[in-house]
Amino acid sequence: MEAVVIVIVYGLGLLAARLALPSLVGYLAGGLLLSLLGVVSTPLLERIAGVGVLLLLFTIGLTLNLSGLFRREVAGVGGLHLLLVVPLLGMALWWAGASADPVVLLLLAVALANPSTVLLGKILEQKRELLSLHGRLAIGISVLQDLASLGLLVLVGMQHPSPWAWLLFGFPLLRPVAGWVLARSRQDELVLLFGLALALGGAELAGRVGLAPELGALFTGAALARHPKVEELSQMLWSLRESFLVAFFVKVGLGGVPSLGSLLLGLGLVALLPLKAALLFALLLRCGLRARTSFLATVGLATYSEFTLVAAAIAQERGLLAAEWGVVLAVAVALSIALAAPLNWAAHSLYIRLERMLVRFELAGKHPDTEPTRLDGAAWLIAGMGRTGGAAYRYLAAQGEGVLGLDSDPEKIELHQAKGRRVAYGDAEDPELWEHLDLSALKGILLTMPELEAKLQALRHIRRKGYKGLVAATTFHREEDPLVEQAGATLVFRPFAEAGERLGERVLEAVTLEDALKPTAGAVGEKPETDEGSEDVRA
């Protein structure tokens, strides 16, 4: 039976990828199809799905800056959004007959106000936008609202943490010890095992003190954030986590075939999502953010959270919620995730279509995510200041060339600026960036962002602007080369492949040089040749 399940899920995941949709949409559809065939979730599937969620939240924690939760755009917007949305959702639940108990209505409304941190983290990471400004804002708001839901569970007495629960907030104090062990885990399998031990151990500890295990995994990862080996640890966990997360999305789809009434009520809750999203978009704009940043963050947060299912299960265990409403909420959560996945994937394209309408709502004045409109004498523009972009910047600057770097990661920008480099906020996928920049004086543009779609979008905007100069773009797979060339790149560079070729070239140069330096006949230290017929004297 397991083989049949895997084949069905794989087939639908492959179909979704062929249709340019995230594969997780196929996994959700696979779960629904299996449910229609009478397949039910098993304890093994539940356990695998749970571990996948823990690993995802642990790796999100590795990139999380806990101090960022107290920024105005996160704490202010996230908190105010809850205050506005919860009464609306509570009234909708009361009107639909979910419960007459105000505590239950409050609990479910707060849970529904939360977005799906799992889906958000998964898509942002796949799009390489987890560290972008809108990615950081979305993750911060999502985590903040999750914490609010957990706090409410404790407050109303539906979850009873032990007095030791506060120790969870002391996880960052373990950073020196955990970092010391991680630095000495030199083999790949040791790094993987250590990461698993941290993620599962933090989750287990949180569960033992009466808190959500997911919170323990998140905090454990955050304790190691910015460690030099964090990137290596994330890469080691990636394949394992992705495989386990398939089980999570299948499990969501396996929620059961709802009755017509449950389906209609679930669709009614999904219909409230645009209102929830519109309020969030308005709040982000009121914080002074540009329409583009606000829109991208809002699309990522326009879902219902899996936490809703946890809250519903607790209420059902206490006899405070009818079993039918557990199915209704499961339908709402599953449909919101299934609809949000392709919307998130197409968020940049959607914004381009809606840009003229959305920018009308921006506040006047300078925004914290304002992009440059002048090059100030720069001859080269580098979009994407990671390892490749940073190395290119250093080389061109060393040659006396004027260079301007752009990146959408605020922390990366601060790091480069602290080293005296000219690096500003800029998202290469944003058409407004290229529309306002005067590119005529540039010798060339380097696109070194990791995501292929980002480079293709940037190339189209640059060429549509009318720029005829050199545009170089990096690729990581040979099949990407014709795509970026068709989009307008005049020079394609594959860092990994060409680094290997350069290594081979230097090895041959070193061997040739070594051969040239070898002593030859007649060199110092060699015996002179004897005359013909003379005796060869040996020591």
List its traits.
539 residues, mainly alpha, Na+/H+ antiporter like fold, six-stranded parallel beta sheet, 23 helices, 6 strands
Explained architecture:
The structure is a single chain. The protein has 539 residues and is mainly alpha-helical. The chain has two domains: 2-361, Na+/H+ antiporter like fold (Up-down Bundle), CATH 1.20.1530.20; 380-497, 3-Layer(aba) Sandwich (Rossmann fold), CATH 3.40.50. It is built from 23 helices and six strands. It has a six-stranded parallel sheet, with helices on both faces. Strand 4, helix 21 and strand 5 form a beta-alpha-beta unit. Helix 9 (188-208) packs across helix 10 (213-223). The longest helix is centred in the first third of the chain and has 25 residues, at 72-96. Belongs to the monovalent cation:proton antiporter 2 (CPA2) transporter (TC 2.A.37) family. Residues 381-495 form the RCK N-terminal domain. Residues 526-539 have a biased composition (Basic and acidic residues).
List the helices and strands and how they pair.
Elements (H helix, E strand, L loop, with lengths): L1 H17 L4 H14 L6 H20 L9 H25 L5 H12 L3 H10 L6 H23 L19 H9 L4 H21 L4 H11 L6 H24 L6 H11 L2 H14 L4 H11 L5 H11 L5 H23 L1 H12 L21 E4 L3 H12 L4 E5 L2 H9 L4 E3 L5 H6 L7 E4 L4 H14 L4 E5 L6 H7 L3 E3 L1 H23 L22
Parallel strand pairs: 1-2, 1-4, 2-3, 4-5, 5-6
Helix pairs in contact: 1-2, 2-11, 2-16, 3-6, 3-9, 3-10, 3-11, 4-5, 4-7, 4-13, 5-7, 5-15, 6-7, 7-14, 9-10, 9-11, 12-16, 13-14, 14-17, 15-16
